Amino acid sequence: MNPFDPASRIQLLRQQDEFGGVNPSITDSSTYTFQHGEDMEETFLGHLEGCFLYSRHWNPSNKFLSNALAAMEDTEAAWVTASGMAAITCALLQLCSTGDHIVTSVTTYGGTFAFLKNYLKKFQIEVTFVNITDLKSVEAAIRPTTKVIYTESVTNPLLQVSDIPELARIARKFGVKLMVDNTFTPMIMAPARLGADIVVYSMTKFINGKNDCVAGAICGSNQFINELSNVNDGTAMLLGPVLDPLRSSSVLKNLHTLHLRMKQHSKNALFLAENLDELGVPVIYPGLPKHPQHELHKRLMHPDFGFGGMLAIDLGTVSKAYAVMNKMQSQRVGYLAVSLGYFKTLFSCSGHSTSSEVPKDVQHRMGLSEGLVRFSVGLDSDMESTFEKIRSILEEEGLISHQNK
């Protein structure tokens, strides 16, 4: 067994149903009974362990999933939410108040960018966007009012790799929290073990893997999760983005196959990246030695799970991107769709979809081409055939020559 084996930590959890079922029962209750009135009061005050009060606070199904996620991340606790954005926004709002400041990566998911750039103005919380790979810029952006350094393990969509141990060192130096979105790299990266204080996920993506629900997670210390769920001032408790128990139960079952799926996603993505690179297609993938943070990724990753299922290619113009994606969909390479982590390959033109919230001038400055196509590579059993379809389409569109075949 590896020194840290997230799959085995999940597998070793004892989570049987109270009636002996191998899967925990789905909680079909919004509220819970108490034997004594005093117990209800103590639970409201947060003084009584093991009792459930109301499903917006905790429920057994969500607790089972939270325990499994905490085991996977090696954190003391976790909290599950109704979306990835709920996880991100609740965690940040729990840490920051009016007048506070956040340092974050300019390359980040479009919804996160919009929340940081636009929505937090309502609370007069200031945000500085930096190139997260430039550690001097990160440190220079810290202010006395800074509360959080926020980044993604591997950024969306340009696939920059965050140096989590060094960012953690900077955070500790200035007494701020490091929050890491690990959506692209579950099991591949273990941000909490690398120094992050809080790890967030869109479980909609790889963790669930079926694109049949929307869900999120926050992993951190017991203190932080208790603060989030406090009935008086807990952001998650009071804003109420509770995950439905039926969906929670479904995600928990899918979590047990995550280690298998991540290995196949990574295997397929590496195969596709290497072969596209040989054709001369501009490819961004951390598994390629030419990637600027390839060696960093190798140092930070769990070696069993590869470099992840996300890659991007630059087709130059949006018209070429649309033409190629339309043909890939018609020839059943995958689907022209946003999101990621699905068992089929998904592709989209990032600057005109999941990063469209980022202004065009900012896209240009950060190096996001209008023709950048982001791939979430699926679980294909015959990746050679998939690649040949893509190669043929690129040739038809004049993006590679016949000699590159």
Automatic annotation (TrEMBL):
One of its GO terms (cellular component) is cytoplasm. Its cofactor is pyridoxal 5'-phosphate. Belongs to the trans-sulfuration enzymes family. Signal peptide: none annotated. The keyword Transferase applies. One of its GO terms (biological process) is transsulfuration. Coiled coil: none annotated. The lineage of its organism: Bacteria, Pseudomonadati, Bacteroidota, Bacteroidia, Marinilabiliales. This is Aminotransferase class I/II-fold pyridoxal phosphate-dependent enzyme. The modification N6-(pyridoxal phosphate)lysine is found at residue 205. SUPFAM superfamilies: PLP-dependent transferases. InterPro entries: Cys/Met-Metab_PyrdxlP-dep_enz (IPR000277), PyrdxlP-dep_Trfase (IPR015424), PyrdxlP-dep_Trfase_major (IPR015421), PyrdxlP-dep_Trfase_small (IPR015422). GO terms for molecular function: carbon-sulfur lyase activity; pyridoxal phosphate binding; transaminase activity. Keywords: Aminotransferase, Pyridoxal phosphate, Transferase. It holds the Pfam family Cys_Met_Meta_PP. The keyword Transferase applies.
